[in-house]
Amino acid sequence: MKSNIKVRKIKGKVVSNKMNKTIVVLIERLFKHKTYGKYIKRSKKLSVHDSKNKAEIGDIVECAESLKISKTKSWILIKILKS
């Protein structure tokens, strides 16, 4: 039986890989201000589980939401898009 649950996926840049099996990924988004119409850039840092410790600083990676792994980790690394 196939599940119809859609998994959230994000792309971002690795900014830290100092922790064991964990990377910090910077996610940037661009949106238009409701009143003034100016485009604003906002960013967020997420802790992502990297089970094989393959990601390096500066890599562009794809991550998916998963069950909570620890207090701050609820995303897992799917693949490295650019090294």
TrEMBL record:
<keyword id="KW-0694">RNA-binding</keyword>
<dbReference type="InterPro" id="IPR000266">
    <property type="entry name" value="Ribosomal_uS17"/>
</dbReference>
<dbReference type="GO" id="GO:0022627">
    <property type="term" value="C:cytosolic small ribosomal subunit"/>
</dbReference>
<dbReference type="InterPro" id="IPR019984">
    <property type="entry name" value="Ribosomal_uS17_bact/chlr"/>
</dbReference>
<keyword id="KW-0699">rRNA-binding</keyword>
<comment type="similarity">
    <text>Belongs to the universal ribosomal protein uS17 family.</text>
</comment>
<keyword id="KW-0687">Ribonucleoprotein</keyword>
<dbReference type="GO" id="GO:0019843">
    <property type="term" value="F:rRNA binding"/>
</dbReference>
<dbReference type="GO" id="GO:0006412">
    <property type="term" value="P:translation"/>
</dbReference>
<dbReference type="Pfam" id="PF00366">
    <property type="entry name" value="Ribosomal_S17"/>
</dbReference>
<comment type="function">
    <text>One of the primary rRNA binding proteins, it binds specifically to the 5'-end of 16S ribosomal RNA.</text>
</comment>
<comment type="subunit">
    <text>Part of the 30S ribosomal subunit.</text>
</comment>
<keyword id="KW-0689">Ribosomal protein</keyword>
<dbReference type="InterPro" id="IPR012340">
    <property type="entry name" value="NA-bd_OB-fold"/>
</dbReference>
<dbReference type="GO" id="GO:0003735">
    <property type="term" value="F:structural constituent of ribosome"/>
</dbReference>
<protein>
    <recommendedName>
        <fullName>Small ribosomal subunit protein uS17</fullName>
    </recommendedName>
</protein>
